[in-house]
From TrEMBL:
This is tRNA (adenine(58)-N(1))-methyltransferase catalytic subunit TRMT61A. GO terms for molecular function: tRNA (adenine(58)-N1)-methyltransferase activity. Its EC number is 2.1.1.220. It catalyses: adenosine(58) in tRNA + S-adenosyl-L-methionine = N(1)-methyladenosine(58) in tRNA + S-adenosyl-L-homocysteine + H(+); an adenosine in mRNA + S-adenosyl-L-methionine = an N(1)-methyladenosine in mRNA + S-adenosyl-L-homocysteine + H(+). S-adenosyl-L-methionine binds at residues 114-117, 135, 163, 181. Residues 248-304 are annotated as: Disordered. Catalytic subunit of tRNA (adenine-N(1)-)-methyltransferase, which catalyzes the formation of N(1)-methyladenine at position 58 (m1A58) in initiator methionyl-tRNA. Catalytic subunit of mRNA N(1)-methyltransferase complex, which mediates methylation of adenosine residues at the N(1) position of a small subset of mRNAs: N(1) methylation takes place in tRNA T-loop-like structures of mRNAs and is only present at low stoichiometries. It comes from the Eukaryota. GO terms for cellular component: nucleus; tRNA (m1A) methyltransferase complex. InterPro entries: SAM-dependent_MTases_sf, TRM61_C, tRNA_MeTrfase_Gcd14. Its main location: nucleus. Keywords: Acetylation, Methyltransferase, Nucleus, S-adenosyl-L-methionine, Transferase, tRNA processing. Residues 272-285 have a biased composition (Polar residues).
Length: 304
């Protein structure tokens, strides 16, 4: 099992995602002889998981069942243990596209946090790229390095425990892209520029407050970055439902009427409502939209 390579069968030591319901999932470290408690009963790793295909339906001790899924960055984002506030798939997808990441890209990131974005970056830049990620908090840095090893992506990432605003990323002139998710990104802009390749690249910053965005944009402009712009992404999910609509009765079609024969009796007039209807699928917009998460600022370092 690896977050960047698919495996068919569950093996001892894998990290699997146990799917309980649409809004309830949990990561499980598969170990010989271990058990996992769920609302539907016990999952026994030796008999219920190891050797089974990913995607299998597993019956728990109470008779209920769960699905066991292969881990992906998207599933990890919605099931990971939160050590910090994290980025979700809507923002992650935009960051990956706007930074122009691809297999073989070299990326610098700070701060690592819970590793939500890090896993998505690693999947995108594998198998030949590399992620240099910096985390200020020592325990978080140690924990995320341990998770990278468990998820078998540690060969693609270097974790550093340091202050990026003072000490930079620990590399110079190697990065195709830089991402900043720290309280004062404007203090790290010069280090981001130093870490990037001479042929240029892309930089992005995530900030919840517009005052942070203003200072970051000023620092980017002072350092010679171009194409500076800021986005705010709000996800609006429409509900799909089935409705039944009554067909209107416009009466008989005058153009289709003909003069009745003298010996032919006119049909009696119809009375009562017309109950004809049609059933169709439609969408309804949400009554409420999830609130603001943060601003994404992007810029380009020109070739030097």
């Amino acid at each position: 099992m690896s977050f960047v390579e698919y495996s068919d069968f569950i093996q001892d030591g894998d990290v699997a995602i146990v799917y309980l319901s649409h809004d309830s999932m949990m990561p499980v470290k598969v170990q010989q002889g271990a058990q996992t408690q769920t609302r539907y009963g016990v999952i026994r790793h030796s008999t219920d998981l190891i050797g089974q295909r990913y995607g299998s339906k597993v019956t728990c001790s109470k008779g209920g069942w769960v699905q066991v899924l292969h881990p992906t960055p998207e599933l990890w984002t919605v099931s990971l243990p939160h050590r910090t506030q994290i980025l979700y798939t809507t923002d992650i997808a935009t960051i990956t596209m706007m930074l122009e990441l691809k297999p073989g890209s070299v990326v610098c990131e700070s701060g690592t946090g819970s590793g939500s974005l890090s896993h998505a970056i690693l999947r995108t830049i594998a198998p030949t790229g590399h992620l240099h990620t910096v985390e200020f908090h020592q325990q978080r840095a140690e924990k995320v390095a341990e998770e990278f090893k468990e998820h078998r992506v540690d060969h693609l990432v270097t974790v550093r425990n340091q202050d990026v605003c003072k000490d930079g990323f620990g590399v110079t002139g190697v990065a195709d892209a830089v991402f900043l998710d720290i309280p004062s990104p404007w203090e790290a802009v010069k280090h981001a520029k130093a870490a990037m390749k001479k042929q240029g690249g892309r930089v992005s910053s995530f900030s919840p407050c517009i005052e942070q965005v203003q200072r970051t944009c000023e620092a980017l402009a002072d350092q010679g970055f171009e194409e500076i712009n800021t986005l705010e992404i709000l996800l609006r999910v429409h509900d799909i439902r089935t409705v039944s609509l009554a067909l209107p009765d416009f009466g008989p079609d005058p153009s289709a009427q003909t003069q009745p024969d003298a010996n032919e009796k006119a049909p009696p007039p119809t009375s009562g409502p017309n109950h004809a209807s049609v059933t169709l699928k439609t969408t309804t917009p949400p009554r409420e939209i999830p609130g603001h998460t943060g601003y994404l600022t992007f810029a380009t370092k020109p070739r030097t």
